[in-house]
Amino acid sequence: MNYGTGVPWLVGDPDIFLKLALEDKRGAEDLLIERIVEKRGNISSATLRSPISGLKCFLEYNGVQLN
């Protein structure tokens, strides 16, 4: 899974998630945790690393840091 498909697969529309992260950091973190738990039920943890890494890069590029 590459960056272009991994990030939307994990959080839906990246621009909407970015807006949420900028406006409500805690809400974005909660949504991300919920999505990771949901996805982890269907695939291995190793498969999740790529989209999570891509999301981290996307957020860092846009000046957002989540825990």
Describe this structure in words.
This protein has 67 residues and is mostly helical. The protein has one domain. 78% of the residues lie in helices and 0% in strands. The chain contains 4 helices and no strands. The protein is globular and about 30 Å long. The N and C termini lie far apart (23 Å). The model has no long low-confidence stretch (mean pLDDT 89).
Low-confidence stretches: none
Helical segment count: 4
Which structural class best describes the helix and strand composition? mainly alpha
Largest sheet: none
Task: Assign a percent range to the helix content.
Answer: over 70%
Query: What distance separates the N and C termini?
Result: 23 Å
**Principal-axis shape:** globular
As a percent range, the share of strand residues is under 5%
What is the number of E strands? 0
- Count of separate structural domains: 1
Could you state the order of secondary-structure elements as H and E? HHHH
Mean pLDDT: 89
What is the CA-atom radius of gyration, in angstroms? 11 Å
Topology of this protein?
Elements lengths: L2 H9 L2 H10 L1 H16 L4 H17 L6
Helix pairs in contact: 1-4, 2-3
Essential attributes:
mainly alpha, 67 residues, single chain
What's the gist of this structure?
The chain is an all-alpha fold and about 70 residues long. The protein contains 4 helices and no strands.
